[in-house]
């Protein structure tokens, strides 16, 4: 007997999505960190993305047990889902004539989604990036001395922070997308800077906490200033600041970059999961 298809609820309003996934975020704050922070940003500013969508996989009582998000032009994001739920949503969207540039998130559900999508649309798929999720079970430590000092960014730093954030996004995504301003993060004391010889040399920011979990991201040192450990200094210091504020820290890093992976491990971060981004080519 064939298994029944999963049930999904489509949501197009970020405030409704925040409410619908609140219990899942509380239960699985690390897995839903990206979905929760992006959805929260859209509640504050709905112009950030055009036509965002969320799908809640629901059980017999209508309770959300899986979470998906699409914020064009990004790939569909699988925050939490079983393989069957991912496969069923791919079938639903493909049969409806939807168009997606790819899928990302948890490795096994993302792979199942891609397989079903390719079978129904004829699109080919390729792995664009493999990412490790790291948490921080202890206070961070620097395994080497880094010259300089840490401070939180102020309003006066906004132009530089936004310029570096754009460079970070361009480096990660290949260009073509305007990065959102980090002015709200600065106002909330969530952007850290490293200074050396009276010059700002590196930055990182922490996402708004959801389920008391924050994500360290936007780690950027201009190419000409690299090789001095400044990024390690700012990540360790910002992580410490968020721990002192009562938050748990996670971060994502490209598994193809062994240097950054080794640095974060030496700092005290540990790899606890994998994600993958799969691109679709017609």
In short:
The chain has 282 residues and is of the alpha+beta class.
What can you tell me about this protein's structure?
- By secondary structure, this protein is α+β, with helices and mostly antiparallel strands.
- Helix content is 35%, strand content 30%.
- It contains 9 helices and 12 strands.
- It has a 12-stranded mixed sheet with strand order 1-2-3-4-5-12-6-11-10-9-8-7, sandwiched between helices.
- Helix 4 packs parallel to helix 5 (107-121).
- The relative contact order is 0.17.
Q: Tally the helices: what do you get?
A: 9
The name of the CATH architecture of the largest domain is 3-Layer(aba) Sandwich
End-to-end CA span: 34 Å
Within CATH, the superfamily of the largest domain carries the name Gcn5-related N-acetyltransferase (GNAT)
Mass-distribution shape: globular
- Taking strands numbered 1, 2, ... along the chain, how are they ordered across the largest sheet? 1-2-3-4-5-12-6-11-10-9-8-7
Helix content, binned percent: 25-40%
The string of secondary-structure elements, in order, is EHHHEEEHEHEEHHEEEHEHE
- Over the alpha carbons, how many angstroms does the gyration radius reach? 19 Å
CATH topology of the largest domain: Aminopeptidase
**Uncertain stretches of 5 or more adjacent residues:** none
Structural class, from helix and strand content? alpha+beta
In the CATH scheme, the class of the largest domain would be Alpha Beta
Query: What is the mean pLDDT?
Result: 94
In this structure, how is the largest beta sheet organized?
Answer: 12 strands, mixed
* Beta-strand fraction estimate: 25-35%
Return the domain count.
2
Number of strands: 12
């Amino acid at each position: 007997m064939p298994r029944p298809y999963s049930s999904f609820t489509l949501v197009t309003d970020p405030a409704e999505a925040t409410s619908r996934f609140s219990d899942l975020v509380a239960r699985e704050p690390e897995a839903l960190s990206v979905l929760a922070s992006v959805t929260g940003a859209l509640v504050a500013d709905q112009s950030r993305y055009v036509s965002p969508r969320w799908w809640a996989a629901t059980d017999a009582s209508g309770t959300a047990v899986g979470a998906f998000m699409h914020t064009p032009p990004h790939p569909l994001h699988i925050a939490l889902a079983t393989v069957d739920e991912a496969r069923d949503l791919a079938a639903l969207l493909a049969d409806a004539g939807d168009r997606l540039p790819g899928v990302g998130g948890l490795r096994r559900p993302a792979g199942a989604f891609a397989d079903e999508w390719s079978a129904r649309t004829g699109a080919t798929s390729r792995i664009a990036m493999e990412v490790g999720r790291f948490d921080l079970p202890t206070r961070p430590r620097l395994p080497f001395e880094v010259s300089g000092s840490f401070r939180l960014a102020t309003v006066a730093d906004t132009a530089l922070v936004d310029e570096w954030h754009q460079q970070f996004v361009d480096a990660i995504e290949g260009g073509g997308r305007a990065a959102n301003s980090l002015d709200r993060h600065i106002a909330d004391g969530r952007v850290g800077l490293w200074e050396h010889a009276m010059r700002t040399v590196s930055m990182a920011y922490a996402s708004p906490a959801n389920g008391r979990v924050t994500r360290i991201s936007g780690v950027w040192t201009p190419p000409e200033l690299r090789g001095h450990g400044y990024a390690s200094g700012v990540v360790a210091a910002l992580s410490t600041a968020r721990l002192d504020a009562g938050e748990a820290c996670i971060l994502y890093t490209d598994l193809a970059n062994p240097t950054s992976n080794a640095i974060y491990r030496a700092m005290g971060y540990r790899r606890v999961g994998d994600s993958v981004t799969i691109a679709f080519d017609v």
